Amino acid sequence: MTTTDVRLFAYRQGPWRAVLNEQPHVDDTVPTTATLPPATARGTSGRPLPSGTHMLLSGARYPQTPALPATAAVPDGDRLGHLLVAALGLQRREPSNRFNDHRAVPSVRSKFPVHAFVLAPDGSSAYLDLYRHALVDLPGRVAAGGDPGRLLPPPGDVTVLLAARYADLPTPYGRLRCALGLLELGINLRGLHIAADLLGVRVRLRPDGADISAGGRLVAAGGPGAWSPPLVMTLEGVGPLHASGPLPGAAGSGPPRYAVEDARLLQESGHPSILEAIGITAPLTGLTCSAAEPIPGIPDLPPRDTGTARHRWDEVLWNRSAGRVPATLSGFSARPTVLGEDCLTDMLAWGGLPAPGPLLAEVGRRMRTSVALQRTAGLPTGQYTAVEGRLALDRADAGLLRELQDGFGYPLTPSVDCGLRHANAMWVLSADLDGILDDFGPAGWSLLQMWCGWTAQGLVTAAAAHGLFARPARSFEEFRMQRVLNLPRNLLPVFTVTCGRSRFAEPMLDLRT
Q: Helix or strand or coil: residue 129?
């Protein structure tokens, strides 16, 4: 895969898709493989995940880390389970939302294409099945030495792999399934770092292509399916794991139960858009990088007794939302509200925290973050640029948010609500695509998507701490937004996050354990 091939793909799935009339029109009833576990991850043995994760997180107020009080004693073997549940676990169902379930990370149409695998020091591996609330054993063991053996962690640590399965996203997305899968890899990477900070665990990203290739073979051994190159991480100091044993309620989880989904997975894995995605992301396996130094996922913020961020950590994760509307509508609603300086300070800190690994961090330094702002911190309504944790005013414009709404992917109609005009902020992440590909080679585009996901998850969490929704989206016309924001010709918007106060609310079903 050459840089030219990736450049053409990047423009076809991005700014050219409207010109080429390749805008996806997604039928929400199209079935996917979103809740299908890998074929070898349906056995009867494994390690149940612990309960009470949200109670542990309730021991500290945002932004205190770690969240565990000094008196809290986590039993040996439970720390990893609590971490995975905090990072990826089920949160709630919303009666009026057609896209359930909701987890601790945002996901397009709640499909959650990113799956987690765990490798223990003894060579045993497992799949994180959130619906069975267990780490389900995978067959075989990874032996020391050889290719997979390079992934074995030291005693007391575990290796975690995150991989996106493209078929979990609806077929009409076409080549956007690649970009969305990579974005959600970055989102889940940040979620894992946040949970690790809350549980007092260090995360070391291993971005070397040899580790990624070995991880890809471990994931592929789980059975049929087309996966992204995985993110490989070492979680340091999680302690020994519980011994594996029989799982409750495992009867009837074998092949007959999943016959329809398995057939769909086989069919979709050969879809042209997925084959193209495999080729586009393959350059990630050619990277040559040392393991990243552990970095935080949560910025160092002072505790406050005033302002709107007075939630406990369990409430912050619960509050993560991409916006809500009544059952008769789609989109997201918002109502005008005034935010203080504390909220803006938090969002700048979360959005500006560097990503792990030298390449992701360097991609982030090449990005421009523009912010369309109104009714926030007493600042004039208009366009700003985020620079080193502060905002620099580009121009005052009282109608900027309304103008951006006019170019959004789903405009305001009788059946679609779009609350962008009432939101407090729209964060626009822009890149020089050609420059990044020239400097980082064909892997640059994939790194860019993952960096956007990392940053978006930070903004989502900051917004949740202040009772706001935050909607990550690629639903906009790149060239039109470029003109509205007066960006240089070489800079194109690649991702947005819209933050505001929801106008619609209703009781929700709590799925936390």
A: strand
